[in-house]
Amino acid sequence: MLTLYYSPGACSLASHIALEETRTPYEPRPILIAKGEQRSEAYLKINPRGRVPALGIDGKILTENVAILTYVAKCFPEARLLPVDLSDEVRCTSTMAWFSNTVHPSFTHIVRPERFAEDATAHGAVKETGRKAFWANLQEIDGLLKSKDWMMGAQYTVCDPYALVFYGWALRAELPVNTLPAFTALKERMLKRPAVRKVLEREDSILLKAA
Predict the structure, then answer these.
(1) Phi, psi for residue 115 in degrees, rounded to 5
(2) Per DSSP, what are the bridge partners of residue 61?
(3) Is residue 92 part of a domain?
């Protein structure tokens, strides 16, 4: 049995959706960041970094979205969550790495400015820089989606639930993401997928409230 440790609304949404898409049995275990549960002694034994997602696999723990999404897609190839062609697969991995290394941190500047500046008087500037960078990244995602159904083209892959994370975060940050037509069309297609809706309902997602 797989065990997914996630927090509603966090980047773990991507792994949560991917697991649900495979239709394999797994145990969803919420770790509520809003209550600081990611820093609890019990959870730090699971992931000493105190972050989500984490995936329990036969007594071993795998962390980081890119790794978990790749593992899930490789373990359940019948779900077709990765492109078959190697060059397309590594482009998918490259996109996920950009999400993790660039897009995610730009949002973190908005909600966790203390990670980037100890001086509280600098937090406002950190947040504003983050908003500009995050918005630019959202616009880039919109550009990548033009004339496409999904991030990788015609095939739905693990990149798509990862992209959906950032649409939800944009709503939280009150950025005009609904003015990005291709990205908004992706969000609408995602909401029509049963696995996506099931997970969003479980997480009481802002994406459903804004639909």
Answers:
(1) -75, -20
(2) 56
(3) yes
